[in-house]
Amino acid sequence: MDSAAAPRRNVMGTGSARFSEFFGSFPTPISIVTARDREGRLFGFTSNAVCSVSAASRTLLVSVGKGSRTLPAIQESQAFAVNYLSAAGRAASQVFASKAADKFANVEWEPSPVAEGAPLLVDIALSFAECRVENAIEVSDHWLFIARVEESTVFPREPLLYRRGDYGVWSPNDAGVEELSAL
Phi-psi category of 165—alpha, beta or left, where left has phi over 0 and alpha has psi -120 to 50? Predict the structure, then answer.
């Protein structure tokens, strides 16, 4: 490959700002992770730290900061819901990323029958997974929860994406598919 045609490389150090820059360099789906505690109080936070672990065992992983107000509810109930957001969920993602007192005031939700009543954000979700915790691992300033997806629902909506502090909506471009398949 001709070195003149290669893009300039931005070499990163190991600091947390560089780490965040690395993960912020590509678009990610946005989710709101929700839970309900024993007293019936609702909790939730915006996250892009959710990933599939195994389709064979229907497990996913969620990373929750130790300072999150949702953490005790997940630890207590051993259940939560992952609500991947549709384009209609932008405002809610900002509310759930804040320290607002009543994050659920302006969203329609239903209690999960299998995730201990965790709120399912039916009006703004692209999809949601109702989960039960199978394992929890403490790593630095976070807890990683590996959970079994007991139920899931997908709606015919466009996904909300996040990259470098900005929102976008998935817009597939099939124009070049035939050209690429000819290669």
Answer: left
